[in-house]
Amino acid sequence: MRLISKRRLREFWKLHSSSREVLEEWYRIVNNKGLAWEDFHDLQATFASASHVGKCVVFNIGGNNYRLITQINYLTYNVFVKAVLTHSEYSRGKWQKKCGCI
User: What is the pTM of this model?
Assistant: First the structure.
């Protein structure tokens, strides 16, 4: 898979330093040329807690402390980071429209 882009991860962990380690670990797993998710079922073999929300895939990061909102193109193996949120920001639900999930 190929992650596009790491910038949003960096911006988030600058504000929430406790997220850095878990976001870097997620990045290492996903940005691996040997990893090739063909569909959501393949993705769940790697991240069982991932879920579909409209056009997006949401990852629970750091023991449910953070939510990573992505859009995935399974044909090109690209993962687009749309947002990284705290659990409380995610719960407000304003991100769905902003991220293009609905």
Answer: 0.94
Nearest to 61 by CA among 81, 76, 38: 81
2-98: CATH topology: YaeB-like fold (3.30.2310)
Angle between helix axes 20-30 and 7-15 (nearest 10 degrees) is 160
At 40, list the tokens: 């959501």
| Domain parsing of the chain, residue ranges | 2-98
pLDDT digits 0-9 by tens, 17-70? 999 999 999 999 999 999 999 999 999 999 999 999 999 999 999 998 999 999
